[in-house]
Specification:
The protein is mainly β and 134 residues long. The chain is 13% helix and 52% strand. The protein has helices spanning 48-60, 99-102; strands at 4-7, 10-19, 21-22, 25-30, 35-36, 39-41, 65-79, 84-96, 108-113, 116-124. The strands form two sheets. Strands 1, 2, 6, 7 and 8 form a five-stranded mixed beta sheet that branches. It is globular.
Length: 134
Amino acid sequence: MNITFKTTDGTFLFRVGAIVIQDGCLLTLEREDHYAIPGGRVMLHEDVETAVLREVQEELGVQGKLIRGLWMNQSFYHSDFRNAQVHEICIYFLVEVDRQQLSGQSDQFVCYEGEKIHRFRWIPLESVDQLKLY
């Protein structure tokens, strides 16, 4: 069970994110009109370190290696998808993966998580500030 709950005033989400940097590039997840960091929701009774490695396995299909925690972010926003105000807490970790297992030398690749299709892209670090990145 994910640590997400809805109230009459909005929705609360507890998430983790994996910052994966290799060869001067950040691994991003392409969305329709923005980019995101791989990750997802923490489950009840799951520690955040286990959660981020589980999310890497689910989304990328490879084992990740946890390097260290980086930062925590708290966000307040309106979600059109949920039609609600959202209060989100996300803890980000530096995670290492074997890039060769992901895509070889390709800067773009696709992974499948059940029925979900995830489109990933390696973005040069000097270009990250030009992205609409959530």
